[in-house]
Amino acid sequence: MGIVNNTKDSFSGDGIGGDVKAAVRAGLSMFDLGADIVDVGGESTRPGAVSVPLEEELKRTIPVVETLCRVHPGRVSIDTMKPGVAEAALYAGVAIVNDVSGLRDPRMREVVAEHDAAVIIMHMRGDPRTMQVRPRYRDVVGDIMTYLEARIDEAEEAGINPRKIMVDPGIGFGKTIDHNLEILRRLREFKMLGKPIVIGVSRKAFIGKISVLPAMDRLPGSIAAAVLAVREGANIVRVHDVEETASALRVAYAIMTNNR
C-alpha cells in the first residue's frame, strides 16, 4: 500500500502540500512502481497534529481519488477519520476506508456499511494531539487486541461485511519505542482476531531513534521493519518507498517460500 499524503505537515517529509496534480502524479507513479493499493490522505496524523476542516480535507483528497479510481478501480483507499470525507471518497470510487481512529464515530460505521466497503480499523491511544503523552499499557499487545476486538464487534453489528474488515495495531500511535518493537515481535498474535493485518512502519520515529536518521533517510530501516512484519504475519504493509519495498519483499518472499 503506497502512501499519498496531500498535506503540508506530514511527519515523514513527503507531504505534497495540497497540490492535487502532484498528488495524482505521486499515486499513479506508485501504481507503476508496484503498489497494489494507494492510500490517499488529506490530514496529518503525526503526533501533535491538529484537525483539518472538513471542506479543506475534501478539497485535498476527492479530486485525487476520483482520478486514481478511474485509472485503477478497486485499488484506492481513503485515509480519514471523518465520515463526510469517507462518504465522498466512496462515491468517487474508493474501495477501502482507512480510519486511524478505529471507527469510533458511529456515523463512520454506518457509511462503511451503507457502501459495503472494506475498512482498516486501527488502534490509536487518544488522538493525534495527545497520543504520545506518556502512553502506558499493562500488556501492549493484549490491550490492543482487546480494543480491536471490541471495534470489530461494533463494526459487524453496524452491518459491515466481516470479510472486509482489516486491523492495524497502530505503530507509533500512542506507543513508545519499546511498545512498537514488542508489537512487531509479537505481530503474529494478532492473527487470533481472524482479520488481515495491516502494518505501517515506514519512516516512523522509532526507526529514527534506532538508526539516528531523519525521516527522509530511514529507507533501510523501513525496509527491514516491513520485511520482518510480513514474515510475522502482516498481509499489507503501508509504505512511502514503494519500488524499494516491493523489490525487497519479492526477494524475502522467494527466500521464505522457495517460490520465485
Structure, described:
This protein is α/β, with parallel strands linked by helices. The chain contains 9 helices and 8 strands. Strand 2, helix 2 and strand 3 form a beta-alpha-beta unit. The two termini are 21 Å apart.
Poorly predicted runs: none
What oligomeric state do the depicted chains represent? single chain
CATH architecture: Alpha-Beta Barrel
* Intertermini distance: 21 Å
Report helical residue fraction. 40-55%
Order of helices and strands: EHEHEHEHEHEHEHHEH
By DSSP, the count of extended strands is 8
SSE layout:
Blueprint: E1 2-5, H1 20-32, E2 38-41, H2 54-71, E3 76-79, H3 83-91, E4 96-99, H4 106-114, E5 118-122, H5 140-157, E6 165-168, H6 177-185, E7 198-199, H7 205-211, H8 219-231, E8 236-237, H9 242-257
Parallel strand pairs: 1-2, 2-3, 3-4, 4-5, 5-6, 7-8
Give keywords.
260 residues, alpha/beta, TIM Barrel, six-stranded parallel sheet, two-stranded parallel sheet, 9 helices, 8 strands, 43% helix
